[in-house]
Design brief:
The chain is α+β, with helices and mostly antiparallel strands. Helix content is 19%, strand content 34%. The protein has one domain: Lrp/AsnC effector binding domain/regulation of amino acid metabolism (RAM) domain (Alpha-Beta Plaits, 2-Layer Sandwich), CATH 3.30.70.920. It is globular, with a radius of gyration of 15 Å.
Length: 112
């Protein structure tokens, strides 16, 4: 598998937010597909547990969370955000160790 990634901060998307949400089962596939098409979405997947949808987004700043959540309210009336987490710094992505700017500085294999 080939993966091309970029330095999040240098690309102008320094904020990372992860959302856990619930969506009516009949709307899950369509909602997930629509969320995955948003330019800021990095991950969107159905999950088990009290929430059935998990998605992560890159944002220009943390104020972007309010705008995103307003968009979610308008576009997906059945989606209910149950929890949100802000990641202040990513130190490793896909086995690559990252410096303060998000550039790869080393590699630690992902254990299977």
């Amino acid at each position: 598998m080939l993966r091309c990634d970029l330095a999040q901060q240098l690309a102008g998307w320094p904020a990372l937010a992860t959302y856990r949400a619930t969506v009516p089962h009949g709307e899950l596939d369509a909602t997930g597909a629509a969320l995955a098409r948003l330019p800021q979405t990095r991950l969107c997947t159905s999950v088990t547990g009290s929430c059935n949808l998990l998605f992560s987004v890159w944002l220009r700043d943390l104020d972007g969370m309010a705008a995103l959540e307003s968009h979610l309210d308008d576009r997906f009336p059945g989606l209910r955000v149950e929890d949100r987490t802000v990641t202040l710094r990513t130190v490793k992505r896909m086995g690559r160790l990252l410096d303060d700017t998000g550039r790869a500085t080393g590699y630690v294999p992902v254990g299977l």
